[in-house]
Write a structure and sequence with these properties.
Layout: E1 2-6, E2 16-19, E3 30-36, H1 41-48, E4 61-62, E5 66-74, E6 86-90, E7 99-102, E8 108-110, H2 117-121, H3 123-136, E9 144-147, H4 155-164, E10 168-173, H5 178-184, E11 188-191, H6 196-202, E12 208-211, H7 216-225, E13 230-233
Parallel strand pairs: 9-10, 9-12, 10-11, 12-13
Antiparallel strand pairs: 1-2, 1-4, 3-5, 3-7, 5-6, 6-8
Helix pairs in contact: 3-4
Length: about 240
């Protein structure tokens, strides 16, 4: 079978399609004909070498993490009812290959009949990250939450899940995506291509921020524009605000 291989840190352009071994059917195997692979910041930052400190890898590797596909075969310790089922899951050793040999039961999920496989695959790295952020920040109906990168793969789920929790949502997006994030449920939308400092001062005060962008300058501007904030970033591990609180 074929897979997409990363051999260096020269970015997406250096990726190659190569023949790789499918791997044997083991008692724990679920063999899945792969149909979709979500492209995550986790992927392209790995390909450019931006994550070498927190994700040490030994090249070459098969890229990708999530997948969506159809089960073709199972090992004797996996349930035969999986055969023919549409599933999504995670493959830590690379998902951008024609056949997935999934051996970790907790990382495989059946797709409900009323949901398309393409839509379901966007849960991996999108909805799961958004739900994690909401749980960590213990979002309440009294919260006003500023979301950066609101039109992205995580941001679109964040808006919808925040509204389900009853929170007020301030979405930060480009001009062309203003209508889109409003349609998702954002209560107010700020244009990151315009004067953000003025927009922040003219908008309601958030008490929590969920950052999906990871730009230090943007986080610094947010932290200095408002009073006390809880900031959770899904895109950077190092941020030291100059303003206390």
């Amino acid at each position: 079978m074929q897979g997409i291989i990363q051999q260096n840190y020269q970015g997406i352009e250096a990726l190659q399609i190569k023949s790789i071994e499918e791997g044997p059917l083991t008692p724990l195997s679920v063999m899945i004909r792969n149909k979709f692979v979500p492209v995550l910041p986790y992927d392209w930052q790995t390909e450019s070498g931006a994550l070498t400190e927190i994700r040490p890898i030994q090249l070459p590797i098969v890229i990708g993490y999530g997948f969506g596909g159809i089960v073709e075969q199972v090992g004797r310790l996996r349930h035969s009812s999986l055969i023919g089922q549409r599933v999504i899951g995670m493959q830590p050793n690379g998902s951008a290959q024609e056949v997935i040999n999934n051996k970790i039961p907790p990382l495989l999920f059946k797709v409900p009949d009323q949901v398309t496989l393409a839509d379901a695959t966007t849960l991996v790295g999108g909805a799961d990250a958004a739900l994690h952020a909401i749980k960590v920040l213990q979002i309440q109906s009294t919260d006003t939450v500023l979301v950066t990168g609101a039109s992205g793969g995580v941001g679109t789920y964040l808006i919808q899940l925040l509204k389900l929790a009853g929170a007020t949502v301030i979405a930060l997006a480009s001009a062309e995506n203003q209508a889109f994030v409003r349609q998702l449920g954002a209560d107010s939308v700020l244009n990151y291509e315009a004067d953000l400092a003025t927009q922040f001062s003219n908008n309601s005060q958030p008490n929590k921020v969920i950052d999906t962008v990871g730009q230090q300058a943007l986080l610094q501007l947010i932290s200095t524009s408002y009073g006390s904030l809880r900031i959770l970033s899904l895109s950077t591990t190092q941020f030291l605000p100059t303003k206390p609180g």
